[in-house]
Task: inverse folding
């Protein structure tokens, strides 16, 4: 699902390893990381297993620890 920044969990997963750190740094500097993480967290709570799984993987890719309660 796209967030207000036009970025999906799949976009984060497709991002090259070499760009992740800079992506996070830029989003922190522009105060736009929190809304992206909030959107991914909302997707991680989805009843749709595909949406949930993709969001959890994207959060992990950004360096967040996730815990799937299933």
Result:
């Amino acid at each position: 699902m796209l967030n207000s920044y036009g970025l999906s969990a799949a976009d984060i997963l497709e991002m090259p390893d070499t760009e992740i750190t800079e992506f996070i740094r830029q989003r922190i500097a522009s105060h736009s990381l929190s809304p992206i993480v909030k959107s991914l967290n909302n997707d991680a709570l989805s009843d749709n297993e595909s949406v949930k799984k993709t969001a959890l993987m994207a959060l992990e890719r950004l360096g967040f620890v996730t815990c799937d309660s299933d």
Notes: The chain has a mean pLDDT of 89. The radius of gyration is 11 Å. Residues 18-61 form one domain. The longest helix spans residues 17-29.
